[in-house]
Amino acid sequence: GNSVTQMEGPVTLSEEAFLTINCTYTATGYPSLFWYVQYPGEGLQLLLKATKADDKGSNKGFEATYRKETTSFHLEKGSVQVSDSAVYFCALSGGGGSEKLVFGKGMKLTVNP
Amino acid sequence: DGGITQSPKYLFRKEGQNVTLSCEQNLNHDAMYWYRQDPGQGLRLIYYSQIVNDFQKGDIAEGYSVSREKKESFPLTVTSAQKNPTAFYLCASMDRPRGAEAFFGQGTRLTVV
What tens digit of pLDDT does each residue of B65-112 get? Predict the structure, then answer.
């Protein structure tokens, strides 16, 4: 079945540091790829998405590019802020006709001033 | 305002009791999902439903049951057969076109006392 593997952390960075969170996937066909963010005690909210190969999703300074050749969707931000402290989840849906929404295990990021 | 609502936010269950977690959405979404979140485990799919009166087991369905009698509602019952029910439960809904994002409720924290 479809699956997502991502860096699990936890990771602690200083403010203005560069962030990369690796995400790779296994799926048949052409899944849609997502990054979700979860703040303490809350549900998840969409950060960005990409629906086809070479698409770049971007939002709030975060970016990720759908790389079919490496089955990856790595999340990057050039300069993190304290407010970026949260748990980040990589996810996919729709690969091979599957309608399941599949998540990675999540990575907790803490950004210190 | 459109959205997805879970209730209650906190729930306490005695050993041997069944409890039902509510999930309601007014987004007119066909697909709805239930996930369980434990520390270090990410989100694990319990059940999902693509259409009214139909639902499928996810990866950890044992000890849980669901119904989908109305498009807006997808309640989850945690039965006494679930041996370790203490967790954070998240409900999500999603429109069916490819690449649509999922919308999450705020979650229900269930504790066995």
Answer: 999 999 999 999 999 888 899 999 999 999 876 678 899 999 999 998
Q: Strand pairing of A107-112 and A11-14?
A: parallel
Contact A29, A10 (CB under 8 A): no
Angle at B43 between CA B38 and CA B45, to 5 degrees: 115
Cα of B1 to nearest chain A Cα, Å: 16
* C-alpha distances out from residue A91 to A11, B15, B53, Å: 19, 34, 26
Nearest residue of chain A to residue B98 (CA atoms): A94
- Side-chain half-sphere CA neighbours of A70 within 13 A: 10
Q: Which residues in chain B touch residue A8, judged by CB atoms under 8 angstroms apart?
A: 40
Per-residue pLDDT tens for A32-80? 999 999 998 888 999 999 999 999 999 999 999 999 999 999 999 999 9
Residue of chain B whose Cα is closest to the Cα of A93: B99
